[in-house]
Amino acid sequence: MIPHSKIALDEEDIAAVTKVLRSGYVAQGRIVSWLEETSASFVGVEHAAAVSSGSAALHLSLLSLGVGEGSEVILPSYVCTALLNAIHYVRATPVLADIDPNTYNITSENIKKVITDKTKAVIVPHMFGLPADIESIVPLEIPVIENCAHSSGARVNGRHVGSFGLVSILSYYATKMLGAGEGGMVLSNDRGLIETIKDLRDYDEKEDYRVRFNYKLTDIQAALAATRLSKLPEFIDKRKKIAAIYNRGLERVGVGLPEEPEGREHIYYRYVILVENSAQFMHEMLKKGIECRRPVFKPLHRYLSQSGYPLTDEVWEKAVSIPIYPSLTAKEAHRIVDAIKMIL
Length: 344
Fold this sequence. Notes:
The protein is an alpha/beta fold. It folds into two domains: 11-230, Type I PLP-dependent aspartate aminotransferase-like (Major domain) (Aspartate Aminotransferase, domain 2); 232-343, Alpha-Beta Complex (Aspartate Aminotransferase, domain 1), CATH 3.90.1150. The protein has helices at residues 11-23, 30-43, 54-64, 81-89, 108-112, 134-137, 191-200, 219-230, 232-250, 278-287, 300-303, 310-318, 330-343, and strands at 47-51, 72-76, 93-97, 119-125, 144-147, 155-156, 159-160, 167-171, 184-188, 271-274, 319-322. The strands form three sheets. Strands 1-9-8-5-4-2-3 form a seven-stranded mixed β-sheet, with helices on both faces. The protein has a two-stranded antiparallel sheet with strand order 6-7. It has a two-stranded antiparallel ribbon with strand order 10-11. The chain starts with 10 loop residues before the first helix and ends with a helix. The mean pLDDT is 96.
């Protein structure tokens, strides 16, 4: 069986975690601080705050921007429910936007259609490793939260994603680009926002009382995330090589293939194809020992019983994510191509 996702750990990863365990200090400490500094430098911003998950990073980012009851937050419908949850955590109102069916990303044009005087922020995920057209979104003068959970290491015209918005977030969930089991990071050039997030992530030993959270990252997770960050260029290179096999092998098969607009680097967190009957296709692939998944389980507008998102619906009904990760071999990639050709 070729799994859809797989994390490959090596001796360096194990040694980094073991060193923390032997130190006797496993909670939030020196390694977390080092990961914050390293991550900020890598992305190209001044400040960072590590937290317990990507969801926690979104939650605290919204709070730091003063988003709350009566506020509206724009986000794409074609995304996982973590973003919707964070908006509901702060009792704000989610306002959904349709996507570009060629890149699966939210666009400035669709954002403009839903802006109101209650709009306090827009969350811009860079879907599946392909950056959104962030350079056209930032000038809209709405606070931008870049969600880089899929896109750590990708660049737009030579500049890392995560350095464009007022705030950006990373995820260290096991199958993400920087998979470390769990964890997240908030990055910004605004020192005040990051100081607010660092205050909110820990509730103990404070001079005043306000609602705070237990959103700390541990040194164990930080040590693993740091080793993954050091190997990120290698991971991206391997993903691109697998994607090249898919691009060549599937070019004339009649499936919808990913696009890479000029200036936007695709790092292939997911390799998404479009097929006419996605459920049947995934079933047939599984029979051949290859696990495929829907890249987004269900669009948000369907959870919220809303309509009017035809491009999202069009993509969702056809989109399938096939295996792609650094430990996937060229032999396995060719086997996947052959299986797709045979089924279609």
